[in-house]
Amino acid sequence: MNTRSFLRLFVATILAAAALPLFAWDYRTCFGNKITWGSNFATFEVANASFPVGAPRDALNAAMGAWNIAPGYPFGFFATYQDLSGATMPNYSNEIIFTTQGFSGSELAVTKTWNSCADLQEADVLFNANYSWSFETNPTTLPVGSPYSLPLVAIHELGHALGLQHQSSTLTMMAPIYPSGGVVGQGTGQHFQPLADDVLGARVGYSNCCTMAFAMSKPA
Questions:
Q1: What pLDDT, in 10s, does the model give residues 123-163?
Q2: In whole angstroms, what is the distance from residue 11 CA to residue 176 CA?
Q3: What distance in Å separates the CA atoms of residue 192 and residue 183, rounded to the nearest whole number?
Q4: Are 169 and 140 in contact (CB under 8 A)?
Q5: Helices (H), the chain
């Protein structure tokens, strides 16, 4: 089992020196193969009690939708809402829930994955119910503390559910310290979405895409 998390800002000084990959398309590998889903979609069972109809469910759907409409990105997240009381691994069912269990410290959320050498087989996303959360999908200010932004954190954790690992740039949703990535757009049109490096990473993992250009020159 592999666990990835989104940590609160106050632990940044502890984690800043950690060795993190340079690019968002870092994946765990097995014999040189990226560990990703063997299909182009994954369905998640989402706890009704955690995400009732209204703002909580809209916020999670917005996070999934933000990945699903990313340009050139062939993978899709789908949700079914169930009466879940917890997340269990491994039961080969992808689950999303608010809980107080499964956290080792100050994590806002964790994504736990189960895989064979070749493929991801399960991903469970756990949001920490010990914290206060905002479900605003069109914020007019950058969220920097409590209540924590569910759409922002969900996009990060869904990136882990794809197989993406942390990266060091703060200009990406896959940076490990909240609120890296933040919002895009202006005024009331601001919203959360995977940023350029995040989307490129997903395209590298799920399509025949993309060679890194370490230098670029103008045409002769």
A1: 999 999 999 999 999 988 888 889 999 999 999 999 999 99
A2: 10
A3: 5
A4: no
A5: 12-15, 55-68, 150-162, 196-206
> For residue 212, what pLDDT is reported?
52
Question: Please, which residues bridge with residue 122 across strands?
Answer: 114
| Stated pTM of the model | 0.87
Coil vs helix vs strand at 5: strand
Neighbours of 211 (CB within 10 A): 6
Tens-place pLDDT, residues 157-183: 999 999 999 988 778 999 999 998 888
What distance in Å separates the CA atoms of residue 98 and residue 87, rounded to the nearest whole number? 9
The CA-CA-CA angle for residues 198, 89, 192, to 5°, reads 25
Q: What is the pLDDT of residue 12?
A: 29
Distinct helix (H) and strand (E) counts, the chain: 4, 11
In DSSP notation, 130-181 reads: TS-EE--SS-SS---SSSEEHHHHHHHHHHHHHTB---S-SSSTTSSBTTSS
Contact 25, 127 (CB under 8 A): no
For residue 126, give Cα distances in angstroms to 44, 85, 122: 12, 12, 13
Q: Provide the 3-class DSSP secondary structure of residue 26.
A: coil
Rounded CA gap, 74 and 70, in Å? 9
AA identity, residue 49? A
Are the C-beta atoms of 215 and 206 separated by less than 8 Å?
Answer: no
